[in-house]
Structures are given as structure tokens and as C-alpha cells.
Amino acid sequence: MTLDFENTNVDIQVSGAKRIEMDAFEAGVNFVDLHLDFPVSFGKYVMGSTPFMQASMRVGYEAMQIHKMRVNHLNDVCSSEKEIRDILTLYSNNNSGIFKVKVLKFLGSKMACDTQLDQNRALYHAIERSFFPFAEPKRNMDAVNLFTEKLMKLEINNKNALHAFFEEIVTNGFLKNVQTDCLEIYPRIIDIELMLRPALFLDFDHEYEGNQVPYRVSAHEFVDAKDLYKDISEIINRALVLVAGLNNIKKRGSHDLFPEGKHVPSSLNKFADCPFGKKLDYIDESWYSIDSEAIDNQLRNSVAHYKTKYNEVSQEIIYFPQQEGMKQEHPKNMYFLDFSRRILLSFRELHRLNHLTKCLFVYYYLRVLGEEGTPVDI
Fold first, then answer.
1. Cβ-Cβ contacts under 8 Å for 10 (sequence gap 6 or more)
2. Do 123 and 131 form a contact (C-beta atoms < 8 A)?
């Protein structure tokens, strides 16, 4: 927002900041650092057309109230940041005794929390409570119902093959590692939650289209977030191994059997090494659909290989997705708000796939071990 103080004699009092004398705001020179809960458009100031009023007019009163509720909850999440980090770390490190104390205190609950099954339940209860503003509760519930239904059907029709799949992913530590990787992302989302608030607002602002003259977002720089986007994409890439294994059992009776074809991986272990862009090609008529908006291999590869440029003033990101040797002649661009939105959508997909790891562990404790939460070293 540009503030036009021309022809005014108002003496502006400043607290907690250093006032810089200047005749007028100069676009491209003065940087405005705004930690707001919605995107801010820049332009000539119109009396009464505050950022809040502009945002309200774009989405309406009801949507604005929902957005307000979510960001208010984020304020509470930030105040509990250390507790949340501790809970996730203790669970990942299998420190069950202290985890039980911490998670029950956080939840304010006396729920059972002694067996591995109970602790798995408590962990995801804490995650849902903390991160629901970023997630999509209805879609998450639908995903969990899908995962549970799929496992039950496979148990009826392919029980031996399903248990062989669990034997491999538990014995080699893959299932635990994917879950741990997912859990490491949540604190990093808290770190950039201010940046993601305007991206959350776009759930309702359907008039906004990417690559327009951008709304401005908060103080975070592109460099603070690009590694997070890359890491989320890589974890989704690894979680696809679980999706593929179940798909192979459903289609061909073994988690190692992929559809016939040239260069098709010979086993699930080989599939794990396939590039992200190829993995979806080997999952035929998948039972689980990855959100297409959460995946952009060109952007991911550009970020991963340092083929990006960022303009701090315009907040424009230029990236080079093609293999061009030493040349960079075919750039693409987006704005920082669009990139923030990509992180949000990717996180939502990772969050759903983390629920897949939860459901797989629940099945493992109940059906493979045969007893509720019998201790096992995993």
C-alpha cells in the first residue's frame, strides 16, 4: 500500500522504528515490510480503501471470518511452538516415556498412551490440532477413509502379499523413515507461518491469478523458503513408494510387480531410485491421486539445482527449467506469493501422505503383530 502524505501537515508519530524523511514513496526504491494476514496490493491510496477493506471486498464477510479464525489459531500455535517441536522430536526418537507426558499435557487429555498404537493416535491428534489451519480437514478425513478401506480390501484379497509388503518396509526402516521425514517438515512450516498466511487467504480469493501484478506478502525472502519446497517435494517423491507398493499388490498380487514395459523397475526397491517425474508413469491407474497443483517438477528441479533468480523489490522469481548447458535462454517466472501458495499446496499433499504412514502403522500394529501395540523395534 502506498501512503500519500502530499499536502498534509499531520505530524506522524513513530514508535519502534526509525523515520526516514522523503518527499514521496518511490516504487522500486522503498521496500515496505508488512506482516499481514492477507496479500496487499500496491498503488495509489484511496481514502478508506485499506488493505483489510480491499481483502474483505474480494472474498466477502463469511470467508474473511473463516480466514480470521485460522490465523488466530496460528497465533496460538506459535505460542506453543516449543511444545510441538518437542512432541515431534520425542516421537521420532522413540522416547515413549517423555513423549507420553508431553503429548497428554499438550492435548489436555487422559487418553490411553502406553502402547505404540495409542502413541501413534496421540501423535496425529496433536498434529491435527496444531496444523489444521494449513490442512484441509474434510480432504484429510476422506484420505484416511480411503487408506483404511484399501488396506481392509487388500487384507481380504491379498493378505499374504500385503504382509510381505509390510515385512519389507518395516524391516528395512523405510516406513519409519518416511514418517520421520514428514514430521521434520511441520516445525519448518511454523517457521514460515507468517509467509503462508497470505497464501491461505487465496483459498477464498478466486479472482487472483498467478503471474499478475503481484500482491505483496510478508518479510520472508525466497531463499528462506526454497529449500523447504524442495524438501517437501522429495518426501512426497519417497512416499510414492508406499502408494506404488499397494497399487502393485492390488493389480498384480505383489508389491514388487510393476506393469510390463521398457525401463520399468524390476522391484519396489528399484522404483524408489526412479526420478520423481518418472514415478507416476509406473503407477498404473493409481488408487490414490496426487494433487497435480502440489507437483511442479520443473520448478522443483530449478530450485534444487540453483537455477533461479529472485528480485527482492518486485518479488518476482525467474527460474530456468530446461537443460540448456551453460546457457539460460528460456526462463519462466512467478511471484513470491504464487511460490508461497505452491509450498502450501505441497505441504497439504505431504500431510495427507503422512496420514498414509499413520494408517499403515495402525494396520501393522493391529493386523501384522496381532496385538494392540505390542512393542517392536522399528
1. none
2. no
Question: What residue ranges of the chain have pLDDT lower than 50?
Answer: 1-5, 31-33, 211, 372-378
Q: Is 59:201 a contact under the CB 8 Å cutoff?
A: yes
Q: Please name the helix (run of DSSP H) or strand (run of DSSP E) that holds residue 218, with its range, or none.
A: none
Planar angle of CA 118, 120, 123, nearest 5 degrees:
110
Task: Please indicate, yes or no, whether the overall pTM of this predicted structure exceeds 0.70.
Answer: yes
The pLDDT tens digits of the residues spanning 6-53 come to: 555 556 666 666 666 666 656 555 544 455 787 776 667 677 777 788
User: H-helix or E-strand containing 249?
Assistant: helix 222-252
* Residues 6 or more apart whose Cβ sits within 8 Å of residue 151: 162, 246, 359, 360, 363
pLDDT in tens, 94-123: 999 999 999 999 999 989 999 999 999 999
Q: What is the C-alpha to C-alpha distance for residues 130 and 242, in angstroms, rounded to an integer?
A: 26
Cα angle, residue 368 at apex, residues 365 and 369 outer, rounded to 5°: 60
Please check whether residue 254 is in contact with residue 161, taking contact to mean a CB–CB distance below 8 angstroms. yes
CA distance 116 to 159: 22
HSE value, Cβ hemisphere, 13 Å, CA-based, for 314: 12
